[in-house]
Structure formats: C-alpha cells, structure tokens
Amino acid sequence: MTNATIRLTTAQAIIRYLDNQFIEIDGEELRVCGGGFGIFGHGNVTCLGEALYGVQDTLPLYRGQNEQGMGFAAAAYSKQWLRQRFMFCTASAGPGTANLLTSAALAHANRLPMLMLCGDTFLTRLPDPVLQQLEHFGNPTLGVNDAFKSVSRYWDRITHPAQIIQSLPNALATMLDPTDCGPAFIGLPQDVQGWAYDYPSPFFAKRVHKIRRQRPCTDEITAARAIIMSAKRPVIIAGGGVQYSRAVKELTNLAEHFKIPVIETIAGRANMLADHPLNIGPVGVTGSNSGNTVAAKADVIIAVGTRLQDFTTGSWTAFAKDAKIVGVNVGRHDAMKHMSAPIVGDAKVTLTELQQALNNFAVDTSWTEFAQFERIKWDNYVAKNVASGNRVNSYAQAIGVVNDLCDPRDRVVAAAGGLPAEVTANWRTKDIGTVDVEFGFSCMGYEIGGGWGARIAQSQREPDKDTIVFCGDGSYMLMNSDIYSSILTRKKLIILVLDNGGFAVINKLQNNTGNKSFNNLIADTPTAIDQFTVNFETHAASMGANAETVANPAELAEAFKRAKAANKTSVIVMKVDPYDGWTNEGHTWWEVGTPEVSNSTSVLEKHTEVEALRIKQRHGI
C-alpha cells in the first residue's frame, strides 16, 4: 500500500494535504489550518475553488470583501490562537493578490503564520499577455507575485504538480517554527492548478504537529546568570513572545520568586493583570511614567520575547547607556540586539532554567518598592485620565468606559493612529492574553478585519465572550467592509468608532514638531472644498449592524451595555476632540526625521529640541 498513488489536480492535492494536518493543543487534536478567507476570480475559482467546494465542513471558506481585510483577519486569527493555528487566504491573479501585500507585511512584522494561495500567470505562456498580467520585457518570469518575496518567510511558485510534495511541508514547517514564523506564499499558475499528477497516498496521511520548544544553551544561561547576579536594579521586559510560548506562568514565577519588577511591551500588554504587584506598567513611547522610570534606572534588563522595536526602547533612549541587556528569545536575531547577552531558546523552557540557575539571587526590597510606588502614581494618573467629567470627549474616556463594563475574557483590538497608544497606556488588563494592539506594522485598517478574524477564532473556544474593536474615523474610512462580513458569518463584533475629524494623531505629531496643521484633519485639508461629516451610524447600519451615535461617555456606557446584550455586530459612534484629551504622560523620546533647514522658526526650534535629546540614545552597545 505504501506504493499506492492517487491522481489529483495540483489544487485538489493542496487542499487534501491541508485537510489532514492537525496540531495538539491542550490534549486536543485540531486542524492546524482553521479554514480560509477567499475572494474568487479567474485566477483561482475554476481549480482551487473546485477543490475547496468538497471540504466546506472541515476547511470553511469565509468570503471576504477585500483581500487586504482577509489578510488582516488571518493575522488576527493566528494571534488569538497564539500562532498554533493559521488560516489561508486565496486570491486571484493580479490586483486580487496584490491587495494582500500590506497584510502579508503586517504578518511578517508580527511573526504571524498565514498561508497565501494565490493565482499566477500561465506557466506555458501560450495565451500571454493575459488579463491582469504585468509584462516585464527583459524578464518574462517576473510578475506581481514576486513582490511577496520581501514580505514572506517562505515563498514558492509551483511550476509542476509534484513540487507541492516538497513545498507544502516546508511552508507548514516555517509557519509553525517559533524562530522563522511568518507568512508563507505559494504562487499557483492557472494552468498548473488544474494539471493532474499521481501523488503518493502517504503524502495525505493524517499528521499531528507539535510546536518545537528549543532548549537554551547551558553556556548562555551561565553567562546571563553572571550578569543578573551582579544586578542591583533588574527589570524584566515582557513581550508578545511570552504569550506565544505560553510562558506567562513561568514569567510570573520568576518575577515573584526574586521580586523583579515587570514592564510590558505593546505586544506583551496582557502578560500580567493590571493589579499584579509586580506589573509596573507599559514601557516606551506609548508607555507609562512608571514603566519608563524603572526602565531608565535599571542596571540589568531581562528582555523576554520582544523584538525591542523603537516604540519599546524609545528609539534606544529608554535605558541607561551602561545598562546590560539579557535577551531571552527563540529567535537569534532578536536575542542578540544591542549587544545583548543572548539566551536563544523557548521562553517557557528558558525562564524555568534561568530561575533555577539564579538560585540564591536576591533583589533589594527598596528597588521593588520604588517600582511599585511609581506604579501607584501611574494608576492614579490613569484613573483621572479615563474618568468622565466636565471636559471634552477623549479616547481615554471611551477606553475607561469599555474597560469598566467588559467581561475579563473579552478581547480588545486596536491598531495604528492614536487609539493603540491610548489603549496601551490606559487599558487595565483584566485577564491574560486579552489585548491585541497592532503596532508591529502600525497598520491602519486592521481593526475591523482583524476583529472579524479574532472573533472567528474566539468563537471556537469562548463563544460567549465578545471581541471589542476600537477604531478611529480614519481607519474606518480606509477599511470597513468586514462589518458586512461579520454580519454574513454571524461573528458578532462591538465596534467603537471614535471620530476626531481625520488623522488627528499625525496632526498632533505635525504640531509637536513645529509644523502647522496641514492635510491631516479634514478641516485643515485645502483640497477638501466641500467639508461635511460622515454619518458613520447610517453607513454601518446599511451593512446590517446595529448602530447608534452617542454624545458623551455616559451615553456610551448605556450603548455598550446594549451592544453586549445584542446578538449581532453593533457599531457605536462618538466624537472625540482632536486636540485635547490626549494622554500626555508616559512617553519617551521617539526618533522622527525633522528638517534641519526650514523657513519656519518653530520648525527649527523643534528640530533643535529633538536633537538635544539624542544624547541619551544607545548606539548598539
């Protein structure tokens, strides 16, 4: 029987293979591919569509409205499943596939698995040039799909049906590898999709995968131990990798055992509950006074599961120049950043071994108490910042209302603009792993599509909880059609559209660097001749959602209660002030390019002010 074969088209073989790949999670076997998102066109409907028709029960296909939104949904699905499961996206040749580029880049930046099965031009070239084909006169092999090489961890173009016997397992291995995790792209020429081949039957046998846990090198543990043992003021930076490794318990054990303060990155925002005595708050550009004060005074920084991007490091000004860094990361590239003493290994395994190695290490209680006192001060600030009262409507107030009323296991989604920064600073975590702030690629438009994908995943484990989306008016205008998707698929969302009249956070940055408001707020856009306010309530209602507009946080609270009780997607719209009400505390320096030459005195003054703070910047040492 081992020599038995089955004759299938390339497309049929791909789908049959995916349908037989499983993963063990908490003792339960689940398909590692949860299904897919698809928009059909001539490049994928006739062959891949035919193959998908027969597996609707096991690999459900969710019909998207925009390929970019499908990719966002797939990325959010993977986040919700802690990178243990993924979705595929299928798009037609040409613009359909090109629309996936932005979401592939988001998945790549965030180290998230996503499989793209995309149409390609005919391998034979007999009908060339075909509809939607880009012709490169000096290189006929070059096409739109080659653009995905820069945003994929694995890339292939299938030119013969037999190639998937090698390509699919390699793509899957990449997506499930904690070190190389990211999007996989497989280009499928339209003719090759329909070509048949006698595939070996064992290729389609059921296989159960497990996520690899890489053990750290003993020498690296020893070197890190020596550094930490010398510390007087250690701090742990907890990143998103802590959750992906499912190492929250081990992180907490290490911190509690030695009384080491913990500060969180944006991706690691829900590694600890808000009221844990060692949770000192978020760190960095969108962080907290408490987290940044402790980071600046620390002499040893234990960075766990973080890629140390500029919003975490304050463009490398958040830490003392002589502070030592121990990098705990499954990825060598991340573990070694800024001359860190690397421990390359799985966080769950590594933190346990590190705790054992430190045995008689002790942190002076005065350091821990100092950090905790700073956190108390920050909590008091946040309480005032989110409180409603006789002042303008703000993001922070909306966040406070939702935070007070939501279930601890509800999931919060935000991305790009001012909202993710405000959520990072003001959200008080009620339960582990319940916050998805997309700041890895800082991608506008992720919110609603990502919320849809997160809800699909959430409903598979916690159907009675809600996915709550914070969305600005700018992101809503960019991508809102997955409100309709959520209605079609009965995947309820609660969406808050906070309208500040344009791209207010970029206007704030513009003003903070001495520039006059220009082309960000609608009111400051000279070419916006006929200015009017979009009726977001009516627009959302036209897509089938419950929708209402509220005037203030008190009305928002009542509307949110109604949304919680509803059985379908609800959209709540509230205007917020574009100038006042921002969280003005908790920020580190952030490097942005400012003009060295300008006719504006205010621009030159701000340039001098920005450059003066560069003295704090570490230079890779």
Overall geometry = globular
Q: Which CATH class of the largest domain?
A: Alpha Beta
Rg over CA atoms, rounded to whole Å, is 25 Å
Helix content estimate? 25-40%
Number of helices: 24
**CATH-defined topology of the largest domain:** Rossmann fold
Polypeptide structure, described:
This protein has 24 helices and 23 strands. The chain is of the alpha/beta class. It has 3 domains: 5-209, 3-Layer(aba) Sandwich (Rossmann fold); 218-377, Rossmann fold; 395-575, Rossmann fold, CATH 3.40.50. It is globular.
List keywords for this structure.
single chain, 621 residues, alpha/beta, Rossmann fold, six-stranded parallel sheet, 24 helices, 37% helix
Task: Itemize the secondary structure elements and their pairings.
Layout: E1 5-9, H1 10-19, E2 21-25, E3 28-31, E4 33-38, H2 48-53, E5 61-63, H3 67-80, E6 86-91, H4 95-98, H5 101-109, E7 114-120, E8 154-157, H6 164-176, E9 183-189, H7 190-194, E10 196-200, E11 207-209, H8 218-229, E12 234-238, H9 240-244, H10 248-258, E13 262-264, E14 279-282, H11 289-297, E15 300-304, H12 310-313, E16 324-329, H13 332-335, E17 341-344, H14 347-358, H15 365-386, H16 395-405, E18 411-415, H17 418-426, E19 435-438, H18 446-461, E20 467-472, H19 473-478, H20 482-488, E21 494-499, H21 504-512, H22 536-542, E22 546-550, H23 553-565, E23 570-575, H24 601-612
Helix pairs in contact: 3-5, 3-18, 8-14, 10-14, 11-15, 16-17, 16-23
